[in-house]
Amino acid sequence: MMTSVDTDLLRVLADPLRLRIVTLLARETLCTTHLVEETGARQTNLSNHLKVLREAGVVETEPCGRFTYYKLRPDVIDRLAGQFAELADSARTASENKRACP
Q: What is the pTM of this model?
């Protein structure tokens, strides 16, 4: 049973703006302009965060004319959720295990 969580992915999602982007993209596919409007972030800042999310495999791009749309990769979120579920299952059984003090 695996009881560890992808720490690199957690670091990526730990940033409040990146987590907000992921939350927005969970609802719909959006372009940078939409994300700027929704988050209030500057485009350059937003683009840097989108690059991090792309490189981590959390989002993928879809060109559409002169715009680039971003969509969330649910399989990545599913994988992370599965890791947390395994961790919770392990914690349930661990409550029965108690290491004696020396």
A: 0.84
